[in-house]
């Protein structure tokens, strides 16, 4: 990880320590950034007793959380640092006395002006995985956990960032021919469902609303594996496509149940099985947490392959950034 990002994380950790006891954590953002923060909630709720809640930026304001106050930590994210709802949510949190920390790619943005502290990350196809948004998020997350409850586990989790790029590179090489076949078979589908749970929920949600709906104009919806049998499975049919993710943690049982049913009733089930990832460089007890980053590599490959097969650039928009909304 770049020294700049390490220093920004260090500054935030010191500010958190100076703040004193944190009794609530809110993770607020929109769209893909909202999905990006979901794994942090997953890890925080498993590793600490401090309540952590992830909310869309606008709802964070309209809900007016009773627990929000001077002992709250509010973490927001906007890639450009200009998302109006997230800028407003960060301002609102700071006005309530909360410690505000923003993640952003852009420098000197409106979000950075509203947040007390900003942690930046890098972007681009040649960027080391530890410097991308998820890598830097984990750099902060495990450093924070190591302060409030010191453990060699979190030391190892931070060291795993050093090998993350090797893991993601290997995964991309492994899945490139597989995903090319998937995209060729799915390129004319007007609708594709995205199913997952646990640590992978954010990636599957982002795949549905960002990669497919926003960037490919393909109808989609995210379905939680555990909720599949409480309504959504009724749309399963032989010609209905699903991209389903099976994780590594205890939530895997939910994923497997959903996959097993879908495969019996649909001829178009495509499974991202995290057990197929080569994560041997990362300690086994940490693989569940890191698996969603690796899943993200596969989801991105699917989106890129869709764009190629369908002749539809991931950068094309009809409304976003073009109309007033």
Automatic annotation (TrEMBL):
Source superkingdom: Bacteria
Gene3D superfamilies tied to this protein: 1.10.10.2240, 3.40.50.12570, Glucose-6-phosphate isomerase like protein, domain 1
Chain coiled-coil ranges: none
EC assignment: 3.5.-.-
Keywords assigned: Carbohydrate metabolism, Hydrolase
Segments crossing the lipid bilayer: none
GO MF annotation: an example: hydrolase activity
Keyword Hydrolase listed: yes
GO terms (BP aspect): fructose 6-phosphate metabolic process; protein N-linked glycosylation; UDP-N-acetylglucosamine metabolic process
Residue span(s) of domain SIS: 12-153
Enzyme class: hydrolase
Described purpose of this protein according to its UniProt entry: Catalyzes the conversion of a range of fructosamine 6-phosphates to glucose 6-phosphate and a free amino acid.
Subunit structure as annotated in this protein's UniProt entry: Homooctamer.
Protein name as it appears in the record: Fructosamine deglycase
Organism in which the protein naturally occurs: Weissella bombi
Lineage: Bacteria, Bacillati, Bacillota, Bacilli, Lactobacillales
């Amino acid at each position: 990880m770049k020294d700049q990002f390490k220093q920004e994380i260090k500054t935030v950790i010191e500010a958190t320590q100076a703040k004193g006891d944190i009794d609530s954590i809110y993770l607020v953002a929109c769209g893909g950034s909202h999905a990006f923060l979901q794994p942090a909630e997953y890890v925080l709720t498993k590793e600490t007793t401090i309540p952590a809640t992830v909310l869309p930026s606008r709802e964070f304001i309209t809900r007016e959380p009773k627990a929000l106050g001077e002992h709250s930590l509010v973490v927001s994210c906007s890639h450009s640092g200009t998302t109006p709802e997230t800028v407003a949510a960060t301002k609102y949190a700071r006005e309530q006395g909360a410690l505000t920390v923003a993640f952003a790619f852009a420098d000197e943005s409106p979000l950075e002006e509203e947040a007390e502290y900003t942690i930046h990350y890098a972007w681009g196809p040649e960027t080391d995985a530890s410097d991308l948004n998820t890598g830097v998020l984990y750099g902060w997350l495990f450093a924070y956990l190591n302060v409030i409850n010191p453990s060699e586990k979190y030391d190892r989790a931070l060291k795993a960032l050093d090998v993350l790029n090797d893991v993601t590179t290997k995964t991309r090489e492994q899945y490139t021919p597989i995903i090319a076949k998937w995209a060729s078979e799915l390129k004319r589908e007007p609708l594709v469902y995205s199913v997952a749970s646990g640590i992978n929920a954010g990636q599957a949600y982002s795949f549905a609303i960002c990669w497919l709906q926003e960037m490919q104009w393909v109808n989609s919806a995210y379905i939680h594996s555990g909720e599949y049998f409480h309504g959504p499975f009724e749309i399963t049919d032989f010609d209905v496509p699903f991209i389903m993710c099976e994780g590594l943690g205890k939530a895997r049982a939910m994923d497997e149940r959903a996959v097993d049913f879908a495969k019996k009733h649909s001829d178009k089930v495509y499974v991202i099985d995290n057990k197929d990832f080569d994560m041997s460089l990362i300690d086994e007890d940490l693989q569940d947490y890191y698996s969603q980053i690796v899943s993200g590599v596969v989801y991105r490959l699917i989106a890129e392959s869709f764009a190629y097969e369908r002749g539809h650039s991931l950068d094309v928009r009809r409304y976003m950034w073009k109309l007033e909304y």
